[in-house]
Amino acid sequence: MSERTSDDQMFIERAQRGDRSALNELVRKHEQRAYQFAFRLTRNPEEAADVVAEAFVRVYNALPNFKGNAQFTTWLYRILTNCFLDIRKKESKRGTVSLDSSVTVGEGEVERQIEDPTANPHEDLLRDERGRRVQRALEKLPAYQKAMILMYHAEQLSYEDIAESLDLPIGTVKSRLNRARLSLREHLTKDEELFRL
Amino acid sequence: MNASRAREYFSAFHEGSLDAGLRQQFQKALASDPKLQEEFADFAIAYEALNFQADEVIEVPMNLSDQIATRLEAAQNAKPRVGFVWQGWFRNLALSGIAAAAILGAGFGIMSKGGNSFTSNMFGTGGGATNVPKNELIFEVMNKSLVVTYTPTDSRPIVVDGKSLPPTNGPLRIPFANRNQAPAAFTLNIDGSKTVETVVIPGKEVTQEIQGSGTILAFAKALASRYQTPVRVSAGETSSAVAWTMTDNNPYEAATAALRDTPYNADKREDGLICITSR
């Protein structure tokens, strides 16, 4: 067990005994990573903060029943994903469309920029353009697939961690991720000319 | 292996995790189908492009902790209360988004004083009356951070950087930490009291400068930054100018030498906390 995991377990046990400072510590330790994942899912700062705050409320409410069979981080990923999916579900019931990677401003539409500081300007340009297209393609995937893709590629969780987070067999995770990547490839073929540069 | 089946193995082949038998079948299918080759080439590009998602820099909003604290408090209030409740405890989280540096929740139990803490009774009622119980502050060094435990004997809240922390029914632990590059100073005083304490928490940046001049607070920041140690300034008067040279490897020795001919004095507690007081 890593030191980080061991620390989490200690904080959880103390929080379960009613020590609020331990819960604070868990929040403090994980809020940034949680926000980054939530932002990747939502591409919207307000919505991401909302997902994170709601996730920690669920952690607070569920903590007494947390058995410690899973790592806290994978449990948190599951809760964040569920919060995100719940928001998307509500939106679809209201008939809204998912966020695109562009925003409308007074003088027209601008694309969200992906910060990616690298050295070579040509590589930068290509990577930025590919990055934007990948973002757009990700928005077209079902929310669940998108979450899995982001867990693996952006959050760099292992297949085992994703399986634990989503409470799925590892084989299922692998096959679903493969299907998600195939779907993503199909969406990207529309931008193939540039994508294959 | 047909094309449809082969697509199921795109990820595993790209990751190099296919076992030998399947890899051979996959390669055979790929070699015999130019369209599949093209699909796999696109797949590989998409796969690698996805990995760049990890490089994206995402800025965490300053008020995130505040939002979380607000929601947690609401959740706490929605629950039936059993026994006493630590009102406003989550507010300790929220302060991290307000101050220039973060005041963070620390993972230590309430009132776990330990042997290496010390008590300050400087925060009296302000009038110097000896028959009034005094509010108690305990300073504890936690690595580069500092935890101050405030045990009130009346209803007056403690004020950190001009912001009153909500009163509690018992001791309030206020953990200070600093995620910024530069050192950060926080003032503490009991509401209504003129006595002010300052704690300086080092940032991530280790300064190499050994000489400088300025107020005692500037010195405390220089000391904290150079030696990566919290510093407490408990001087009644902090405006006198001092010039310093810090050559010693030990922060206490360096502070003592630097303040030798100044109106200030350096003291060192058992847990290593450097405390600067007026002579």
Topology:
The complex is a heterodimer of chains A (197) and B (279).
Chain A: H1 3-16, H2 20-42, H3 45-62, H4 72-94, E1 102-105, E2 108-111, H5 121-140, H6 143-154, H7 159-166, H8 170-188, H9 192-195
Antiparallel strand pairs in A: 1-2
Helix pairs in contact in A: 1-2, 2-3, 2-4, 3-4, 4-6, 4-7, 5-8, 6-8, 7-8
Chain B: H1 3-8, H2 10-15, H3 20-31, H4 34-51, H5 64-78, H6 91-98, E1 118-120, E2 136-142, E3 145-151, E4 158-160, E5 163-164, E6 172-176, E7 184-190, E8 197-201, E9 211-214, H7 216-227, E10 231-233, E11 242-245, H8 251-258, E12 264-268, E13 274-278
Helix pairs in contact in B: 5-6
Description:
The complex is a heterodimer of chains A (197) and B (279). Chain A is mainly α and 197 residues long. Chain A folds into two domains: 1-93, Rna Polymerase Sigma Factor, Chain: A, CATH 1.10.1740; 120-192, Winged helix-like DNA-binding domain superfamily/Winged helix DNA-binding domain (Arc Repressor Mutant, subunit A, Orthogonal Bundle), CATH 1.10.10.10. Chain A has nine helices and two strands. Chain A has a two-stranded antiparallel sheet. In chain A, β1 and β2 (108-111) form a beta hairpin. Chain B is of the alpha+beta class and 279 residues long. Chain B is built from eight helices and 13 strands. Classes of the chains: A mainly alpha (197), B alpha+beta (279). Chains A and B meet through α1, α2, α3, α5 and α6 of A and α2, α4, α5 and α6 of B.
- Return the structural class of chain B: alpha+beta
Unreliable spans of chain B? 81-89, 94-133
Which chain pair shows the most residues in contact?
A: A-B, 58 and 51 residues
Oligomer: heterodimer
The structural domain count of chain A equals 2
**Sequence stretches where pLDDT stays below 50 over 5 or more residues of chain A:** 95-125
The top level CATH class name of the largest domain in chain A = Mainly Alpha
Output the number of helix runs of chain B: 8
The geometry of chain A reads as globular
